[in-house]
From TrEMBL:
<dbReference type="Pfam" id="PF03401">
    <property type="entry name" value="TctC"/>
</dbReference>
<keyword id="KW-0732">Signal</keyword>
<protein>
    <submittedName>
        <fullName>Tripartite tricarboxylate transporter substrate binding protein</fullName>
    </submittedName>
</protein>
<dbReference type="InterPro" id="IPR042100">
    <property type="entry name" value="Bug_dom1"/>
</dbReference>
<feature type="signal peptide">
    <location>
        <begin position="1"/>
        <end position="24"/>
    </location>
</feature>
<dbReference type="InterPro" id="IPR005064">
    <property type="entry name" value="BUG"/>
</dbReference>
<comment type="similarity">
    <text>Belongs to the UPF0065 (bug) family.</text>
</comment>
């Protein structure tokens, strides 16, 4: 037998031997704890939701899910950890707007590609962003008053955000782009200190996600002028949408889903997706999402991937037009 034939024969035998092992590994899934990487600090909305869903998934999977907080670099640290992990179903990621729609435009060089380096497992949730002002901001009694003041004072009105490249930051950049206005960005390290300064009157306004802002809006600590959803939020029925106040094509949401490394076997993807959807339908998770004005994104991996890529196509031109860069 020629040397080439011998090599081909050996390769065929190796592949035949490897196939049952791969099937055994997949069929026995999961047989160890699963690591859920959250690219934000503990205690935030993304972390809280991940822990609630992880707990709800544990029973169906028959395995523990350990949340591993890896914040930094606008979510790139956590995302890169997952992108370079083995595609065996034991490492997953909470991915949001930054990973899925923003960072490929915000960074000149990204250590991963959101479409090529991940397996899309399924959606988690989305929730709208709300334009809020300090209740003592006299020029912001109504949305009309706010816009009149901003237009008359370009650059003199500051706005807060949880940080450069956050959904809140880019929501205001889209708002500025659509309305042809200029407000000055004051980035903070997290949503809590940004909101604290808006409530204290140090900064007059910001876009605030409904999940974090519902209680302070309802208590009157900040005033909601408009919401970035297609329809009014049931929990804030008196707050008009941006479209209703005349700002078209400016729907702004924070959204999240679960990713795994590229190459995850189809049966493991299906298993994770099935248990994820069951968890999102569990009474505990449903109540938590309803309490925070969150909308479930339960569905297939293909549906979540299509939604995420549509968001990337929507935001790319806006980010390029506004010139926002993070490197």
């Amino acid at each position: 037998m020629k040397r080439r034939s011998l090599l081909q024969h050996a390769a065929a035998l190796t592949g035949a031997a490897a196939a049952p092992w791969a099937l055994a590994q997949s069929g026995n899934y999961p047989h160890q704890p699963i690591r859920w990487v959250v690219p934000y600090p503990a205690g935030g909305g993304t972390d809280v939701l991940a822990r609630a869903v992880a707990e709800a998934m544990r029973g169906g999977l028959g395995a523990q899910i350990i949340v591993d907080n890896r914040p930094g670099a606008s979510t790139n640290i956590g995302a890169q950890i997952v992108a370079t992990s083995k595609p065996d179903g034991y490492t997953v990621l909470s991915a949001d707007n930054a990973v899925l729609a923003y960072n490929e435009y915000l960074f000149t060089k990204l250590p991963f590609h959101p479409e090529k380096d991940f397996t899309y497992v399924g959606g988690l949730t989305r929730f709208p962003l709300v334009l809020v002002v300090h209740p003592g901001f006299a020029e912001g009694r109504t949305f009309k008053d706010f816009m009149a003041y901003v237009r008359a004072n370009p650059g003199k009105v500051n706005y807060a955000s949880p940080g450069n490249g956050s959904p809140h930051h880019l929501a205001m950049e889209m708002f500025k782009y659509r309305t042809k206005t200029f407000l000055t960005h004051i980035p903070y390290r997290g949503a809590a200190p940004a909101l604290q300064d808006v409530m204290g009157g140090q900064v007059p306004c910001m876009f605030l996600d409904l999940a974090a802002g519902l209680s302070v809006i309802q208590s009157g600590k900040v005033k909601a002028l408009a919401i970035g959803s297609a329809k009014r939020a049931p929990l804030l029925p008196d707050v008009p949408t941006l479209a209703e106040v005349g700002i078209q094509d400016t729907e702004v949401y924070a959204f999240q889903g679960m990713l795994a490394p590229a190459g995850l076997p189809a049966d493991i993807t299906k298993r994770l997706n099935t248990e994820l959807n069951k968890a999102l339908a569990s009474p505990e998770v449903v109540k938590r999402m309803q309490d925070y004005g969150m909308e479930s994104l339960a569905g297939t991996p293909e549906q979540f991937r299509a939604m995420a890529r549509a968001e990337a196509r929507r935001w790319g031109p806006i980010i390029k037009a506004t010139g926002v860069k993070l490197d």
